[in-house]
């Protein structure tokens, strides 16, 4: 891995608004052990068909796979599910933890706007950061991998750098740039020489930083030093990476890399993504296997988090651009539909609940702003409500970074 690739992949503090100059080395060392919570955003890119997931409909030919009498239900739970794929296993396993939000009005059928609205809570402003970026910026903005992303909408609002990792070999190289491709058996320098180089870099940085008085020059030097310091800390990630990642599901592999970064204390949040949900033709054959991949990946993430001792600190949010129409087009596809669903579970989220609903034509019901029960005169559930509640749940609603990006809708007590 050459120096340019390293800096590109690291995405270190050179772009951050919260300059690493403000952190002493001891403060930075403390931040390098971030203990959680960790935020996992699961993005089904293209617009998922919620009638094959958590908002089942067995009437009016809305789907061609099951009837009304076949809809899955769970004892002592309001959660229902489409009886397809691995839904029964997933929903029965996680019902007690799962919060389902149905009838969410995305207010658009544009992919770009829908993704932005789903993950930032702002439909109009493309400059707004995602919730994952806000959480990372509020909790630990200078971590080397504070905000990891595999794609999708991942705007940062210029609050902190974004680290994109396309595959595990990149992360291994990033974790140990002193070794070829991150392999311990292929060092560029002998151990003693490597240590002398590190000491010289530290001493040179300290001398030049003290001699520099221009803010822009200080920022540039501090950013470079932060990148180098972060590279050393990233070796801890390698300890938690398996030799081989799952090959049957790319989202599982993404989840494992994220968990390794969480376990190393170097990351706060991650975007996991799966493409291919824009099913304008052959809706069922496109949607059903991909929905199964998403649920399998979330199950795998939580099982691995349990094994690594992280389960109690994980928060998972699952969403998409919007939903699919309640009718099939001539190509047996379904087109864009502004009403969708969001699911969440994990640290501090009160599960075994469904908020919101749609009618037999997939049109949303309003909810009472206090009780969240269905109510004709209530409010339309929108991503702003969900993101305001997410910010409060994460304890960042009153933070300076969140206050810079205000959301206009009223507060709904969604997660607790």
TrEMBL record:
<dbReference type="InterPro" id="IPR010869">
    <property type="entry name" value="DUF1501"/>
</dbReference>
<dbReference type="Pfam" id="PF07394">
    <property type="entry name" value="DUF1501"/>
</dbReference>
<protein>
    <submittedName>
        <fullName>DUF1501 domain-containing protein</fullName>
    </submittedName>
</protein>
<dbReference type="InterPro" id="IPR006311">
    <property type="entry name" value="TAT_signal"/>
</dbReference>
């Amino acid at each position: 891995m050459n120096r340019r690739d390293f800096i590109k992949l690291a995405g270190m503090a050179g772009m951050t608004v919260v300059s690493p100059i403000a952190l002493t080395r001891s403060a930075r060392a403390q931040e390098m052990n971030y203990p959680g919570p960790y935020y996992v955003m699961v993005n089904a890119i293209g617009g998922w068909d919620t009638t094959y997931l958590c908002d089942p409909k067995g009437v009016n030919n809305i789907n061609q796979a099951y009837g009304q009498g076949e809809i899955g239900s769970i004892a002592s739970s309001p959660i229902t599910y489409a009886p397809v794929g691995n839904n029964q296993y997933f929903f029965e396993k996680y019902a007690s933890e799962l919060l389902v939000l149905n009838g969410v009005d995305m207010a658009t059928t544009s992919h770009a706007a829908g993704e932005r609205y789903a993950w930032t809570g702002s439909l109009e402003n493309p400059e707004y950061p995602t919730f994952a970026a806000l959480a990372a910026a509020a909790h630990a903005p200078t971590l080397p991998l504070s905000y990891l992303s595999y794609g999708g909408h991942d705007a940062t609002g210029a609050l902190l750098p974004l680290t994109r990792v396309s595959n595990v070999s990149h992360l291994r190289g990033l974790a140990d740039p002193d070794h070829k491709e991150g392999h311990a058996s292929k060092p560029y320098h002998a151990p003693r020489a490597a240590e002398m180089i590190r000491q010289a870099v530290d001493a040179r940085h300290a001398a030049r930083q003290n001699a520099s008085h221009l803010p822009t020059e200080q920022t540039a030097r501090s950013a470079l030093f932060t990148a180098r310091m972060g590279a050393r800390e990233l070796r801890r990630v390698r300890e938690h990476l398996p030799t081989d990642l799952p090959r049957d599901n790319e989202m599982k592999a993404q989840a494992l890399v994220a968990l390794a970064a969480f376990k190393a204390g170097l990351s706060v949040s991650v975007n996991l993504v799966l493409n291919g949900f824009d099913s304008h033709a052959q809706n069922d054959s496109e949607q059903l296997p991909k929905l199964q991949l998403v649920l399998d990946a979330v199950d795998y993430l939580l099982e691995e988090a349990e094994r690594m001792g992280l389960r109690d600190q994980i928060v998972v949010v699952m969403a998409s651009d919007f939903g699919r129409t309640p009718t099939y087009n001539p190509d047996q596809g379904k087109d864009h539909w502004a009403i969708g669903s969001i699911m969440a579970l994990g640290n501090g989220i009160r599960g075994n609940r469904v908020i919101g609903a749609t009618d037999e034509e997939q049109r949303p019901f309003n909810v009472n702003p206090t009780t969240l029960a269905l109510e004709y005169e209530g409010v339309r559930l929108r991503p702003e409500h969900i993101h305001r509640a997410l910010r409060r749940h994460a304890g960042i609603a009153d933070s300076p970074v969140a206050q810079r990006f205000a959301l206009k809708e009223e507060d709904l007590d969604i997660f607790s």
